Amino acid sequence: MLKKDELKFSSKKFLISAAAATTIMATSALAHFQMLYTPNTALTKGQTIELREVFTHPFADEHTMDMGKQHDSKKLMPVEEFYVINKGKKKDLKSTLKDITFKGNHNSGHAYASQYKARRMGDHILILKPAPYYEAGEDIYIQQITKSIVNVAGTPTGWDEELGLKAEIVPLTKPYAIWEGGSFTGVVKSNGKVVPFAEIEVEYLNRDVDLKNNKMGSSYVQAPQDAFITMGIKANKDGEFTFSIPKAGFWGFCALGVGSDKEYKGKELSQDAVIWVEAKPMK
């Protein structure tokens, strides 16, 4: 039986352990990523592609967020902008978005499904600007302006184009033409100006995405420690960063809080820039 002093020490030790565990869980939960997913970004010919717009944690699949969640209403706000640019021509895609329930391995959340006719040769730059999402754990809003580039027939026609977005990662490497073991380089910008020393989170899409049933599959790899779930890097003074890609698949890069909008509905807004790149296996 524990003595009084031992009991106090044991209780104190338990409280510290519980607090540490809570901190670890909270830190891990910060790694939100807006997905703009299609299964193949390097098409040999034009075709209609499936897209899924899901707000989730791509590596651990801890929680699927309800896109458009607000702090002052149960009503979900719709996507603000969704469009594509091909050879300098912009096309609005908001009408293609269909509300879905997307099932993760721990819960389900409100998301979208859409289709896009990627028929013309060249680069199709897809941009998604969702409504800010209320993160109750931090009492802030998060808005991730997300970019994904699909190429048809290998002809480059603007993959490195700067769009002047409020939060943007401009690729310096073709994001659809990277071998496994290669690297990706980008520059973080806001309204056309570089963001020096931007903090960037990197995550691997560690799951199959079941397009037919709108759900996540089982994981590919296990992280040896939490720091490998969401990897942190920083841009240099010129806003540039490079990341070596160890495994084939999709990788998300999120530059935190770099956008020019800092407040939404009277609360702090983290306006982030997200870009997705795909590495292919070398067979």
Automatic annotation (TrEMBL):
Keywords: Signal. Pfam families: DUF4198. Residues 1-31 form the signal peptide. This is Nickel transporter.
